[in-house]
UniProtKB/TrEMBL annotation:
It comes from the Bacteria. Residues 1-62 form the DUF2007 domain. This is DUF2007 domain-containing protein. It comes from Shimia marina. Pfam families: DUF2007.
């Protein structure tokens, strides 16, 4: 699995997931339950992971839909 994007905005993650599923690309959201540690204030980013073999296609889908591939802060 490779990290496709990282964001503190859950709507970006949801939109990216829907786009990837529409293209037949499997993805997995990590760090979903970190809100327990942070107190639900949204400061810890969530990561969206894809298979290594799907990474280039997934990046193209994100860029085509103007989603910034934020992997580091």
């Amino acid at each position: 699995m490779k990290e496709l994007l990282r964001s503190t905005d859950p709507t970006v993650i949801a939109f990216a997931t829907a786009l990837l599923q529409g293209e037949g690309i499997d993805c997995f959201e990590m760090d979903v339950n970190m809100s327990v540690l942070e107190g639900s204030i949204g400061i810890l980013p969530r990561r969206l992971m894809v298979r290594s073999s799907d990474l280039l296609q997934a990046e193209r889908v994100m860029l085509d839909n103007e989603i910034t591939l934020g992997r580091s802060f």
